[in-house]
von Willebrand factor type A (Methylomonas methanica), 377 residues
Amino acid sequence: MSTRWLHQWPKRLSRSLAIPLFSALFALPAVSNTASADLGSIGMSGGYGLKIYKVNYALYPFVQVYFRTFDQTMHPLINLNDMNVGLMVKGQSYDPMKRQSLIQPLRQRSEATRTVLVLDASRSMAGPPFEASLTAAARYIDSKRPQDEVAILSIRDTKEGYDIVSQFERDPGALGRRLLDVRADGKKTRLYDSVGAAMQMCGMTSQGAISLSPENYVASCSIVVFSDGLDEGSALSREELNARITNMAIPIPVYSLAYSKVSQKYFTNLESLSKNSFGVYYLIGETMNKMQQVVEDIQNIVQSDYVVTFRSYVPVDGEEHSFKLGLEYPTGSGKLTYEGAKFEAIEPPPVPQLQPLIQQLNQTIPLLPSPYFDKNQ
């Protein structure tokens, strides 16, 4: 980042977020290719960080960046506004006073989120532990937004090591009925194979994707695991699964609820998966009554992502171009962190439904001679 950008950023004026909920409505392979890293490598020296999940350029020249923020406890930053955001494209810093970008909370937009609930249905979990996990899973389903999708996977004695209780579904009633059919009667726990399957489910086409509507664009996918961490006989090892997580182009965080009435010996397996995936590890132990509070916390994290929309001034050339998204938090504190990603400079697809959205964005973020700092000032 240029020193001038760092100097000017804290002076940024606030602006209204009263803009229609523009979503990237066309299913292009428009995602960021960010590398996984530990917290220290993504700006945690200031006490917080960010992780870009997706970059969508279907409305080019407008680019939408979906990202998650977190403090040292992995909880989201709240009440971010335009004064907190900085942008650099191909090494040139945008002048925030020219208002060529805006930030919106995902919670107030129409894009959907996805979650795969992974339930350990082995006999060792039978009784109060399993009943508590079912109650917590039901609570998670009840607290989702109407457009959000949830899938349910139970770890069972099948050929694959798991049973898909429900594909991605928006109807909480249907999800609840399927959840009630799960029984804790498995003999083995192929935990790693089941989490790997949940990751594959996250890559599936969204429900109703043939319809061009904001609700059918999936902003993120997360995995919530209810287990004691014991793995028995998985084809995947913990190291292999963590390697998959590390190499994923789109992050899929794993939120683990570690609980057991017998032993905490294997909790570290869950902790490893969560920390490597930018998820959160929750030590429940034997205090089952904590589960509902924890799933509410996870739901809050999932719904607290942000979306930055900016106008690109790179001519259409069909090539990838780098940019950096930066945050200063709190405003004026001088505590800065940023992450890089890429977008493609391509013409929008010839879909009539997209044109009104592009026109509205043209009014909200009007074309200027240049979005960058004036070097002569």
